[in-house]
């Protein structure tokens, strides 16, 4: 299985999660014990039901908000000041979330001002812990030494898919071993190894923990016996496609073998499960609607103020959904009213058709709130590939291998591709997004959907929308 861990979860961020849980438990336990002596007569005793309930409503919201602001992403490109800001945002959101939950699950309030004191102390504790983690290069925990068997086109997938240093925090690439059948090309990012000894000897002497098979022509060229000897000595043998899938969260569509495509002929979901899936999405939509209705009203007013009282607030477009079904999608209008006077065209990053109000709506994903109606109608889910317009979808299907496999699941308001890939507007960007969409289709599950929903909060909170 290419995904030996839970998607982005690995030893480094798992260590952070456990450390934060210990910090939260310690602060709550020692803090409430100390404060209990100040506020006599309270019923909070270590280990009793009252203590455990408050511990749950203190710890869980903080863990969720830390995840939602991207603090468990070791590839986060942020300086320490930015980390502090994110921790502060997470603490404030956790406080609000905990306060909101108290309306649905009534529990006795904590004594005095202890709740505010606990959250303030937690902020300090998390900042100190994150400073220590960064200084100790926590992201290198569990880092493996790997060697690539092959030095041709397939081996160069590592360089093209993982260009940045942050993309390689989980492994140390010692080099590429050239074998017969490899195609010549551009220079590789690590040394090309020419061995005058058996591969297993080099692997064992240099502490190699994983061999990546990236031969351009495998038949008759793989040193099968040497690989077997490495395998029995505990060295992991991984195909290059599985390695890239595991490390980047995408599938290299241009290099997979047709026999490895497992997306075709997926059975339709049973109506009973489909109903509960719709019900789950609808409940989330109602919850979001209850929270965001002031933003919806503000967005409508802002559009009218900029474009005039007669200007339309909403617009609709046809999109391609599940199994190719065409439906109408609804959004707040973020472009000029004559944006497509010259015909349908994809929006670009610096599109001069976007209004000033539209820039803000897009940046914080507010323009997509009317799509809650599409969720109620069952045309969309919260998580899935973004629905494309029919004319562009047809073009991509004819030009990009496996593009039609996106239609095997319902489209979504957010998705794995939106988390992993920045905004794009061309064929190359469509290919890159497809790699992430296919990864999601292959691994989709309820827990992965929850992870994507929580991490989408980072996009909204820090204005990373398109």
Which consecutive residue ranges, at least 5 long each, have pLDDT under 50?
none
Order of helices and strands: HHHHEHEEHEHEHHEEHHEHEHHH
> How many distinct domains?
3
Mean pLDDT: 84
Structural class: alpha/beta
Quaternary organization: single chain
Strand content: 5-15%
DSSP strand count: 9
Q: Portion of residues in helices? A: 40-55%
Rg of Cα set: 26 Å
Quick recap of the structure?
The mean pLDDT is 84.
Descriptive report:
The strands form three sheets. The protein has a five-stranded parallel beta sheet with strand order 3-2-1-4-5. The model has no long low-confidence stretch (mean pLDDT 84). It has three domains: 11-139, no CATH class; 143-248, Rossmann fold; 271-338 and 348-461, no CATH class. The protein has 15 helices and nine strands. 30% of the residues are buried. The two termini are 34 Å apart. Helices cover 48% and strands 9% of the residues. The longest helix has 37 residues, at 271-307. By secondary structure, it is α/β, with parallel strands linked by helices. It has helices at residues 11-38, 49-68, 80-104, 114-135, 157-161, 199-205, 224-232, 240-248, 271-307, 356-363, 372-377, 390-399, 416-420, 427-443, 446-461, and strands at residues 144-149, 171-177, 192-193, 210-213, 236-239, 314-320, 326-332, 381-383, 412-414. It is found in: Membrane. It is a multi-pass membrane protein.
